[in-house]
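Possible regression after last week's pipeline update?

I re-ran a chain I had predicted before the update to compare outputs. Posting the input and the new output here so someone can diff against the archived version. Not blocking, just want to make sure nothing changed silently.
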Amino acid sequence: MKATKHAAPGAWRRLRPTGGMLLVLLLTAGVPACGVLALLAVPGGGGAGAGRPAAASATSAAAPRASVPPTAGAPTPAAGASADAPATVTGSGRPSAPPTPTDTVAATPPARPTASAAPTAPVNGTAGTAPATAGLAGRIKPGVTNQGVATAYAAGDGNGSCLYGPSDDLMIAAMNHTDYESAKACGAYVSVRAASGAAITVRIVNECPAPCAPGQLDLSRQAFAKLADLSVGRLPISWTLLSPDTAGTVSIRYKSGSSKWWCGIQALGHRNPLAALEVRGPGGWQQLPRTDYNYFLSTDGTGCGGAIRITDIYGQQLTVDGIPVQPDVAQPTGLQFARH
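New output (post-update):
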């Protein structure tokens, strides 16, 4: 008889009731539905995975925070700022609103300096002192002894590059080109002394061009003869600037061809060398450029026939008003610079 092979009985497995089966059994037993639901929610109460730790999810979701409505008037967080950032706590323990950035205020620009008022119209023939006198003297400075050589020339009627015109007094000289300094030496009085002790005073009315060297004076023959014989030719000398005691006063002369549209102005008979000549225009005093022939030019007519102010190398100023444009006429002012 052929033996029949039977499969070995499998191991008995306890059926675990599912949630649905348990619900049916409990409802059949008369347990209220609300009780059934509560029982299922309790850990180990028969729910799926009862008796085991719940597996952690791949991504743990953070528990939502309670949303608190903002207090009325509290600032709204700036864009990009974290709403969960802790509030700043003040000394009282109360949270304070985060500081509000201070608005940048542009610095107020300083007020522009206002232009000074135009000077008051001067009285005819007034004298004053310039506020700043530094550098007015140029190359020929007071109190400085200059060394050089004296030569002689035929001065004729005494006229020269300074265009003062003929002169009865021929104790005059021509200044070397360097110290002439574009007519700045015109009208200067200098004391000239030779090694023998002989001395004279001459007025600068001309320019001695090259090869006259710095320090050299080309004296009129009349002046040279007071120091040495003309046959000497070249005489070593020293000379210094003077502020002499003169009896005359300053005159103003307009150049030939001057009008209200263009004018050249010249000062005559001044005791001290001139540093500047100004005319008064719409914007106040305007300094005129000085030419090599010793006239101050107003090429656009500014100030022609109006107030004139002259300043010497010591800073003293003489102001004259109402000098009409009369070409080639020396008009006296009745004023003179102080002696120094």
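Follow-up from reviewer: compared with the archived run. The domain at 251-332 is CATH 2.60.40.760 (Immunoglobulin-like). Marking as no regression found.
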